[in-house]
Write a structure and sequence with these properties.
- This protein has 141 residues and is mainly α.
- The chain has one domain (32-140).
- The protein is 85% helix and 0% strand.
- Helix 2 (15-75) packs parallel to helix 4.
- It is rod-shaped and about 65 Å long.
- The relative contact order is 0.11.
Amino acid sequence: MSAGGAGRAAHDGTGADAAVGTDATAASGPRRRWPVVVLAVAFALLFAWDVVEAVGNLVSVPLDSRYANNDFYRENGLDGLVAEPPWVVLVLGVLLPPVAFVLALVASRRRSLGVVALALAAGLATVAALNLTITAYVTSL
């Protein structure tokens, strides 16, 4: 009974005790958030690298297919092989990394640091796999 009474006494404290508990939890909030912010910024740089690669593909693939391949095909009478760049796939490659990053952050919101890291790593792995698939598709055309 004494343990129950002591527990009740701690919860039935004065307003000063309640204020101390509130200040303690409010002070721990920012301290707990900065590792998640640092982790998110580190992963944002990795996701940004994929965006840079996708923008490079978006710029270079149409130039390569237009000037190198299509001109060669037209000069040699192979008009049936002339192809337009895969615009949908190229634009999807640019949009995929930011969407995956935001989805990973939203899915791991208010979770532990390990869960946030795992969600961001899974998102980055998904983006890398899909970008490799897009690259293989574009180069096979």
